[in-house]
Design a protein that fits this description.
single chain; 2 domains; elongated
């Protein structure tokens, strides 16, 4: 008697797992507590109701992107961090720049060297330099933006600093604070190399 082969079973396709919306409750609670904020305070800062905040923290509600954006702004964190992404990298407690790594600039006459000591992110706000001026050297500058001031402190030797029509001779340990939004210059009229610190403060 002929046997009938069993018909193969048709595999039932499995539904792809549905991605679960991000749960921000635990992250939100941790950030709020780290800032010592009450639900009432965060509610006022973010413009989100206290009851909604409570539900979000207890994972009883998933907020809309607009709500998460408000909360992130109120807490001062990136949106991705509140959504469970990697936290923003924190700045190290200490940075280090070896002496040979500090970039430097030279004046057109080649007799003045400015070693840049300030971090690049502060350029245009607050700059400071180690200045070395050879005998006969001059660092002449055109006006910077309105309100800019420079602070020059001599370490060794003497320097003549001028701004507009005013000139002042500086000896070791002395400091001149002057307007740099007009033509100004630093000159070494002596016979020895001069070392100084130069700080430039731009208007806010």
């Amino acid at each position: 008697m002929a046997t009938r082969s069993a018909s193969p079973k048709t595999a039932t396709p499995r539904a792809a797992p549905v991605a679960e919306p991000p749960r921000v409750g635990a992250t939100l609670a941790a950030l709020r507590q780290s800032r010592a904020l009450s639900l009432d305070e965060l509610s006022r800062m973010a413009g989100v109701s206290k009851s909604m905040l409570s539900q979000i923290e207890r994972s009883q509600a998933n907020p809309t992107v607009a709500v998460v954006w408000r909360l992130a702004n109120a807490l001062g964190v990136p949106l991705a961090e509140l959504l469970g992404g990697a936290p923003a990298a924190t700045e190290p407690a200490m940075g280090f720049v070896p002496a040979h790594a500090a970039p430097s600039l030279r004046s057109p006459d080649g007799l003045c060297e400015l070693r840049i000591l300030g971090p690049i992110e502060l350029a245009g706000q607050f700059e400071w330099y180690s200045l070395t001026v050879q005998p006969g050297g001059a660092l002449e500058s055109t006006p910077h933006e309105d309100g800019t001031r420079e602070h020059l402190t001599v370490q060794s030797g003497t320097l003549d600093v001028s701004t507009g029509q005013e000139t002042q001779r500086l000896k070791p340990g002395e400091t001149a604070r002057y307007a740099a939004d007009r033509p100004h210059a630093i000159r070494n009229a002596g016979k020895t190399v001069v070392s100084a610190w130069l700080v430039v403060v731009h208007p806010a």
